[in-house]
Amino acid sequence: SQAALDAALPKFDELTGLMQRQDMAGLVQFNNTEMYPAFDPVDASFDALTGYQLDAAEQLRIEGDSLFTFLTWLILGISLGVTDIAVGVVVVITNGIKRNLLSATGLANAVALGDVTATATVTSQDELKDLVDALNVMTGNLRTSAGIAEQIANGDLMAQPKARPTRIRWA
To answer: Do 107 and 121 form a contact (C-beta atoms < 8 A)?
Structure first.
């Protein structure tokens, strides 16, 4: 630009004078202190811009590290929370299945020991409920058969076994 040229001309004249006098010490000093600013007036601007960019880049790096750390902990926390919820759901479902199986096992053990008055109840609406319902029907039929056998054993030879065609409908 014209302003830069106007600022450089007096320095050019000074350089010309130093060269004509062959002043080596003056030339070295001029070179170190005057020449580059005179011929490259934007050098300081580039230095300032570069410094600003380096500072901004460092600030962005620090912010990026901070964001990375925050997101890492957030993802870890969410993962642990989801895992806790999944474990809780598994425990609840497993306990429900276990409770229903214990009811069915209790009925089967009672019938195996001769207690045909036992029944089992379940709260679920699944295959275990179907199994327990079948066990209850079987126990009821055994109870009826045992009652007839007891009547016959007590001398009532007129007692007639009745077929109980009870069917369980599977869903």
So the answer is: no
The pLDDT value recorded for residue 110 is 92
SS3 for the chain, per residue?
Answer: CHHHHHHHHHHHHHHHHHHHHCCHHHHHHHHHHHHHHHHCCCHHHHHHHHHHHHHHHHHHHHHHHHHHHHHHHHHHHHHHHHHHHHHHHHHHHHHHHHHHHHHHHHHHHHHHCCCCCCCCCCCCCCHHHHHHHHHHHHHHHHHHHHHHHHHHHCCCCCCCCCCCCCCCCCC
Residue 55 pLDDT grade (very low, low, confident, very high; cuts 50, 70, 90): very high
Give the phi and the psi of residue 113 in degrees, each rounded to 5.
Answer: -90, 0
Question: Considering only CA atoms, which of 12, 17, 13 is closest in space to residue 38?
Answer: 12
Number of residues assigned to the chain:
171
138 sits in the region (left: phi over 0; alpha: psi -120 to 50; else beta) called alpha
pTM score: 0.51
